[in-house]
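[Meeting: bench + compute handoff]

Bench side (C.D.) handed over the final construct sequence. Compute side (W.E.) agreed to return the predicted structure before the next meeting so the bench team could plan truncations. Sequence as handed over:
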Amino acid sequence: MVLEELEAALLQPVLELIRSWGEWGILVGMFLESSIVPIPSEAVLVTAGALGFSPLTVAIFGTIGSTLGGVVGYYIGKKGGRPVVDKVGPYLLVTQDKVMRAEKAFGKYGGWTILVARLIPFVPFKVFSITSGILKFDLKTFTVFTLIGTFPRALLLAWIGVQIIQYQAYFYYFIFGVMVAGLLAYYLNKKYKWF
């Protein structure tokens, strides 16, 4: 219950930021989401689409902001390591258990873990950014996989936001997409224990 109230309190200023700053608000919102603020990226991206921004614009600015925020998370992990995760991780929704799961995925799949984690909606990417830093994963590879994985995810979520406004024509596509994303996230969690 407290987490939902915290997310709502943090999300409202981000929405105002998007309304006031336009595309740059999307970039800043996604930067904050990907680095230190515990708000869901899905809410930022879907809302930006619903506010009338084109999915391509949302994807470009969201990807840049998310990648920059991911690099901050990377450096938090690289410089602070596990002590930072233990101390401030729970406030960022990054627990020791989630980091251990991410490490296990890295051990098994390497850099592809970053790409897959970025492609799938509802996966808290902060965990993978911080874990990448803890493991001293190559920063260039991390950044490239983050860019590649974030763009289609941001594009899809912004498109969903646009469709919510025009839901009469595409309502079933939206419901289908949410169901597929939810089932995929459930399957991956059961199989790989990523989140």
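W.E. noted at the follow-up: The chain has one domain: 2-192. C.D. will use this when planning the next construct.
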